[in-house]
Description:
This protein is an alpha+beta fold. 35% of the residues lie in helices and 24% in strands.
Amino acid sequence: MNESEFQTIVIDMARLFKWRVAHFRPAMTSKGWRTPVSADGKGFPDLVLVKSWRLIFAELKTDRGRVSTEQQEWLDALPDSCIWRPKDLDDGTIERILRSGMK
């Protein structure tokens, strides 16, 4: 499963359990694909999920995907941040978190 397919599944599951989800998509520019961010935005997590009092920042990776230095810095700085991989979908971890709202 590639990251885009994985992301679609996670977003659909989050919506099923009534989470609000934000994802900032890259756009094609003359310099290739870029996500328009400024300041320290490089490496910001793929998804921001909110439900009631709970906020999750999720970086999505394939099972072999690597977290960049900038991504790790964001994950270390944000509360309730996580790295989710397809194996977390397969073993029920993501569903458990989204269903219960607890890590």
